[in-house]
Amino acid sequence: MALWQQFLMIAGLHFLALLSPGPDFFLIVRSAVVNGTRVASGVCVGIALANGFYIALAISGVAVLQEVSGLMSALTWGGCAYLAWLGWRFLTVRGEVSFHF
User: Lowest CB count within 10 Å: 9, 43, 55, 98, which one?
Assistant: First the structure.
């Protein structure tokens, strides 16, 4: 897959994730209410720069892992095993369900 296709896929998924409100949304709203729109705009720029930085780290990390023979495969199978174990734990755990209103 070409680099631009990977970027478009990640950007599209990131856009879908931004449609639901999360901690960033509440931080921006709080900042706008308490400090005004100028400070909230700065918060938005900071969040966008941080997200771009972490996306670049993720893309470069995957590129490095794909170059090392077997490392990406081992990481993938390790992740599969962890998710299978986690699913098994969720299915077999015994606990008390209590509702407090």
Answer: 98
